[in-house]
């Protein structure tokens, strides 16, 4: 075998090896790991809608879930199937996979051809150029690209977990707004009946005008509070609609009339270790750090060379000359040249590249350490809030509301027996309204704190809890009762 043929055979063999090691597109766009995390942590399915059949299947599943009053779990599943922002995150994952595949391919050669002609001469030059530097570093760069794609998968899983938590929080807010509006409606009906009775008694002289005015003012306040509650009900429902990605006939979905009952209190065993082991944001930071470590190693290995280009050129010259006999003769020649171009950083010997890589790595390492510290604190804080809201809600449920009912019942009996006036009756009714509103808000805040606690162990990020019970009680003039 000639040297030229052996050289060509070596090039072909090398190209075959490189192409054989190239990454390829996965059938599901890299979504399998995201689906595994979603099912493991949420017990829910996620689907990338890439064609009409997938869209119809998801639509049928959503329609089935919307036929019954929504539970929190059903709302999360609808959001995971129907939220277009999540589908955009899946598209982003597909883009990351395309970038990974592109990074695993050998560098594209550059072809060029030029022609120079004159009256007596013709020169044709063909050339091919390629980066040897990119070719030699291809395996390392492909490995780094694969690590970055795996980090992109974790980021997509983080988007899934975040959407699930946000949907749960908004679901509880929407249901609580429904409960408050219903409670206001009942209080308004009772107040209307009492106002009508006082009006008739006032006409017959049985009640003085100041007592009538107090009752009418109380009824007017309840009218305003009911209007505010209905406005809040509509706002919270629309916010839930946006999380679920619903429109058209899908907006007719129903919510339950009450918030779920309190579950059994969970223990706080090893929550810090569980957060460090399972939180997606920490896994992402670790993956980024690993990719940067490999990138730093590549930078160290190539610090003295920025680029190496191999240029192959083939030239064809043809001209005409006059010989000794006065005749014109044609002359042609062919030549091949091979050029190697090396870019060397002679001013800093690659030191700036190395320092940049080292500082980028240390930055990522410090951020990972910060996340680890914060994860422990956030897990403890989320559990503290969960536990406190559980105790507060149970206190309202077991003590405050029963006592408020006893007080109002006794106040009504004393008023009927003419032992007190309408002022005491209205004051007791108003106090019971405040307590009922605070109890509804306390149960809402408990379920939001429950969601925050779960998310702090798996999803990370800031909590999205609502107003505290104290604040809700302080705004009790927007509440209702009877």
UniProtKB/TrEMBL annotation:
Signal peptide per UniProt: 1-26
* Disulfide bond among keywords: no
Gene3D superfamilies in the record: Outer membrane efflux proteins (OEP)
Tell me yes or no: is DNA-binding among this UniProt entry's keywords. no
InterPro entries in the cross-refs? MdtP/NodT-like
SUPFAM superfamilies tied to this protein: Outer membrane efflux proteins (OEP)
Write the record's keywords in alphabetical order, separated by commas.
Signal
* Molecular-function GO term, any one: efflux transmembrane transporter activity
Q: State what protein this is by name.
A: Outer membrane protein TolC
């Amino acid at each position: 075998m000639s040297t030229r043929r052996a050289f060509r055979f070596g090039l072909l063999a090398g190209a075959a090896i490189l192409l054989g090691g190239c990454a390829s597109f996965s059938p599901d766009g890299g979504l399998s790991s995201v689906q595994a995390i979603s099912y493991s942590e949420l017990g829910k399915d996620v689907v990338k809608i890439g064609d009409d059949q997938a869209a119809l299947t998801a639509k049928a599943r959503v329609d089935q879930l919307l036929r019954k009053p929504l539970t929190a779990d059903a709302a999360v599943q609808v959001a995971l199937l129907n939220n277009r922002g999540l589908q955009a995150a899946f598209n982003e994952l597909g883009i990351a996979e395309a970038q990974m595949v592109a990074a695993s391919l050998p560098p594209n050669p550059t072809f060029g051809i030029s022609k120079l002609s004159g009256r007596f001469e013709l020169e044709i030059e063909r050339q091919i150029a390629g980066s040897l530097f990119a070719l030699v570093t291809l395996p390392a760069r492909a490995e780094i690209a694969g690590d970055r794609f795996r980090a992109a998968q974790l980021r997509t899983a983080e988007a899934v977990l975040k959407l699930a938590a946000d949907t749960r929080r908004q679901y509880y807010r929407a249901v609580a707004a429904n409960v408050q509006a219903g409670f206001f409606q009942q209080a308004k009906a009772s107040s209307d009946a009492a106002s009508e009775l006082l009006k008739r008694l006032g006409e017959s002289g049985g009640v003085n005008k100041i007592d009538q005015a107090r009752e009418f003012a109380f009824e007017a306040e309840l009218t305003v509070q009911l209007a505010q509650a209905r406005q809040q009900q509509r706002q919270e429902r629309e916010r839930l609609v946006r999380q679920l990605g619903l429109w058209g006939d899908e907006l007719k979905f129903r919510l339950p009339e009450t918030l779920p009952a309190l579950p059994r209190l969970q223990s706080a065993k090893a929550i810090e270790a569980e957060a460090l082991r399972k939180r997606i944001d920490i896994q992402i930071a670790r993956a980024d750090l690993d990719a940067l470590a490999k990138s730093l190693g590549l930078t160290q290995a190539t610090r003295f060379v920025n680029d190496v280009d191999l240029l192959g050129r083939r030239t064809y010259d043809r001209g005409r000359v006059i010989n000794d006999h006065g005749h014109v003769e044609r002359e042609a020649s062919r030549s091949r040249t091979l050029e190697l171009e090396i870019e060397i950083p002679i001013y800093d010997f690659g030191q700036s590249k190395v320092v940049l890589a080292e500082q980028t790595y240390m930055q990522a390492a410090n951020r990972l350490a910060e996340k680890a510290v914060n994860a422990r604190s956030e897990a403890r804080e989320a559990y503290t809030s969960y536990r406190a809201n559980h105790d507060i809600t149970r206190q309202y449920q077991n003590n405050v509301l029963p006592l408020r009912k006893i007080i109002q019942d006794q106040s009504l009996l004393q008023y009927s027996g003419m032992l007190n006036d309408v002022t005491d009756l209205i004051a007791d009714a108003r106090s019971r309204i405040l307590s009922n509103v605070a109890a509804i808000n306390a149960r809402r805040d408990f379920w939001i704190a429950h969601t925050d606690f779960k998310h702090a162990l798996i999803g990370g990020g800031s909590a999205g809890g609502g107003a505290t019970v104290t604040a809700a009680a302080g705004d009790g003039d927007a509440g209702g009762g009877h």
